[in-house]
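INFO  loader      accepted 1 record
INFO  loader      residues=229
INFO  predictor   begin
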Amino acid sequence: MTTVIETQNLCRDFGAGDTLVKALKDNNLIIEKGEFTAIIGPSGSGKSTLLQLIGGLDSPTSGEVILDNKNISHMSGTQLSDFRRDHIGFIFQAYNLIPVLSAKENIEYIMLLQGISADQRAHRVKNILHEVGLQGMEDRFPAQLSGGQQQRVAVARAMVSQPSIILADEPTANLDSKTGAALLDMMKELNEKEHMTFVFSTHDPMIMQRAKRIIRLVDGKIVDDERRD
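INFO  predictor   done
INFO  writer      dumping tokens
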């Protein structure tokens, strides 16, 4: 298997002195290509912090994050943002779509930043709209889409640049159960068909049911790591 993410003795502290909180404590983790992994645990266990460190949205207090054989722990500024743009897809519970851009424009935005040609962008957008079931909606703005449709645009945007890994922070939190289940089934199908790597931070039992691997955090420490067939 190809290792996509590796963490080594990963720690993240917040505050200092009497207000010091050790959000993550010496965590070692390997994520391999094609995994469909859920990071779970009670509120305050550190799962969102772990996801943010893996994604280069935050820096560790100590320890290392290695993505595609590159140590991102000490990258900063343009180097980190460019690496993140080219290697990581993000899906957030609040969708984070750009309201003045159409669905198509939101999906192709990262590819524009990457300098991908107009023909290639059009080809990829057409294909991904079909994959996520949004054909015919490419010219609608976020306000003209339901929550589930907006999250599908967010999934398409995360995937279309063909990143090494897709990180999803509570992606079903703002969706009803039926819409959330349909979205997760779509992501699982894309994982199996395209061998894309997904890591979720979640409380959602529907994600846990579909995950091939469950990593449980308690008080900032990985306490269980279960793989399923």
